[in-house]
Design goal:
The complex is a heterodimer of chains A (286) and B (283). Chain A is of the alpha/beta class. Chain A is built from nine helices and 14 strands. Chain A is globular and about 50 Å long. In chain B, helix 1 packs across helix 7, helix 4 packs across helix 5 and helix 10 packs across helix 12. The chains are: A alpha/beta (286), B mainly alpha (283).
Chain lengths: 286, 283
């Protein structure tokens, strides 16, 4: 069992030190819970909507690692894994990124830079950020994982790719302004749940979605973080709009029997070579 | 064999008003907090928009933290004043009355050719002056009451009704404000009466606009979502109504923006230098 905490926290815009302290304080409050992996939403250190302010507030990955390494050493005996969405500066380039940190261990294990930058409607990411170009699963202390950020996950081909790479759990930091109030839950929250259940059920893996909360100049981030299991079931669901720590056990040993009974991923591996020439043709014509 | 037919798609304006109320109270609380405020001031006209705004503010902040203002002119309808009082009583908010007649008439005395329409706009802007002064007096942020329909039509006094920094109703059509008003318990006589800016005797919104709100809102929603005119007409609206609605929207875009500024540099504010309104850097 891998004990997860999805920390659906509310940042204050631009107050990086305060926000990181808020996160650290939330983690310390969960000290007795024996958390193995904590997952924090997209852009948590700064807030999501920054426009050109990304240039002033983005962090270098090393800087982030250092801030958490010192804090971890002061408060923990055992390692703690932390998945954190943040705006990253790398030389003259800026990314919407997520880091997988093994605090008290290997440090930065993996860095994912968001590939699909929403630039429509209320979103304007590609105007201010560079695209990531890599999609890779990686090994953690517990199993094989992958990171996808927000819209990355809305294109199911990304989850399919990391599933084929062996991912057993996909971490999805996100920031999703609530919209669509025709039903008892916001339409975007329902859409996220539909996606998470479809992806986890199709590939027999876990999906851990950590979704930001707080009002950013009228855009009310929805929250509604969740963990979906390998049969497409929701294992735990956080409330909408308010800060919450969603705790859930992830049992990676469930994956082999579930995939044995419902071998969609194996079928995909068998059938993919048949459709791949056509897929390649379509991509080459883009 | 059973034959099941799909129905043509149409946008639905009906909302889950319980969820909307939750979202809007949270919005009011959080947007005030980020600006360092715990109290709000709401100018209450006796109409449904300000009644809903007052109800949301009272829920969000506690009635004791909301200041309701009645700002009548001697030409205002007595019904408007009575309804402002009724709304404040219903939601347990203390109502302060400031008669704007001397302010407005002080200007009118010097302006003999002041038309009723211009005088109405002077009244609206006078109410804005009083509201912002009361804001400073009580350290309470003014809440806007403008709905999406009037914003899209430009049917408001510029730099008056649209001036408060936080507006919970600005993305709700009038039809939806009525729905939310019912959910929040706004008195029936306020929901049921003909909407009026009450800037001129006998004025009503729908006579000014030339279209009923409930019809305009459906047209607007389909237009904004990219449905062609013929499709909207197919839903039962006349080509004249559709044209009228589109014309009102497209003649008033300037009223939904800050003033045009001559672009001189590559750091022009809002053109090149882009920051969201809540942007800040840690002190």
């Amino acid at each position: 069992m891998v004990r997860h905490a999805l920390l659906q926290l509310k940042p204050q815009k631009g107050r990086v030190s305060r926000n990181l302290e808020h996160l650290q304080s939330a983690l310390l409050k969960l000290g007795d819970e024996g958390i193995d992996v904590a997952v924090v939403p997209e852009a948590f250190p700064t807030g999501y909507f920054l426009q050109g302010g990304v240039r002033e507030l983005a962090l270098e990955a090393d800087e982030l690692v250092e801030r958490f390494a010192l804090w971890h050493a002061a408060h923990y005996q055992d390692p703690l894994d932390l998945v954190l969405g943040f705006y990253e500066r790398d030389g003259g380039s800026y990314y919407n990124a997520a880091a997988y940190l093994e605090l008290g261990g290997r440090g930065l294990v993996h860095l994912h830079r968001k590939i699909f930058l929403p630039t429509y409607g209320v979103f304007d990411e590609e105007r201010f950020l560079d695209r990531g170009h890599e999609l890779a699963s990686f090994d953690t202390r517990f199993g094989r994982a992958a990171l996808l950020i927000c819209e990355d996950f809305w294109h199911t081909v990304t989850a399919t790719t990391v599933a084929l790479q062996g991912a057993q759990i996909v971490y999805v930091p996100s920031a999703s302004p609530a919209r669509g109030f025709g039903n008892s839950a916001p339409a975007n929250v329902e859409r996220w749940e539909t996606l998470a259940r479809a992806v986890s059920g199709e590939h027999g893996l876990y999906v851990a979605l950590a979704s930001l909360v707080g009002s950013e100049a009228g855009k009310l981030m929805s929250g509604g973080s969740l963990i979906a299991g390998p049969e497409g079931e929701v294992l735990a669901r956080a409330p909408v709009f308010e800060e919450a720590a969603l705790l859930a056990e992830v049992d990676l040993d469930r994956i082999p029997p579930v995939r044995y009974d419902n071998p969609m991923l194996a079928d995909l591996k068998a059938g993919l070579p048949l459709i791949f020439p056509e897929l390649r043709r379509v991509v080459e014509e883009l | 064999m059973r034959v099941v037919r799909g129905v043509p798609n149409r946008e639905v304006l009906e909302l889950d008003y319980s969820l909307v109320a939750e979202v809007l109270t949270r919005f009011v609380r959080e947007e005030l907090a980020v600006r360092g405020y715990e109290r709000a001031v709401v100018a209450v006209s006796g109409g449904v928009d300000s009644a809903v705004t007052l109800a949301l503010a009272a829920q969000a902040l506690g009635a004791q933290n909301v200041h309701a203002l009645s700002l009548p002119h001697r030409d205002s309808s007595p019904e408007s004043v009575a309804h402002a009082r009724l709304v404040a009583e219903r939601f347990g908010v203390r109502l302060e009355t400031v008669d704007i007649t001397p302010m407005v008439e002080g200007y009118a005395l010097q302006t003999p050719d002041l038309t009723p329409r211009r005088k109405g706009n002077v009244m609206a802007r006078t109410r804005m002056i009083v509201t912002f002064d009361k804001s400073e007096q009580y350290r309470a942020l003014p809440l806007g009451t403008g709905n999406k329909t009037e914003r899209l039509f430009g049917y408001f006094t510029w730099h008056a009704d649209d001036s408060p920094p936080v507006n919970p109703l600005g993305d709700l059509y009038k039809t939806q404000v009525w729905g939310l008003a019912e959910f929040l318990g706004v008195p029936d006589e306020i929901i049921g009466k003909a909407p009026t800016a009450d800037l001129e005797p006998g004025q009503t919104d729908e006579a000014d606009l030339g279209v009923r709100y409930r019809r305009a809102d459906v047209i607007l929603e389909h237009y904004l979502k990219g449905y062609p005119d013929a499709y909207i007409v197919g839903l039962g609206y006349t080509p004249e109504e559709v044209a009228l609605v589109k014309r009102r929207v497209n003649r008033t875009h300037y009223k939904r923006h800050l003033p045009a500024v001559a672009l001189i540099s590559s750091t022009a504010i809002g053109e090149f230098y882009l920051r969201p309104l809540d942007f800040r850097i840690e002190d």
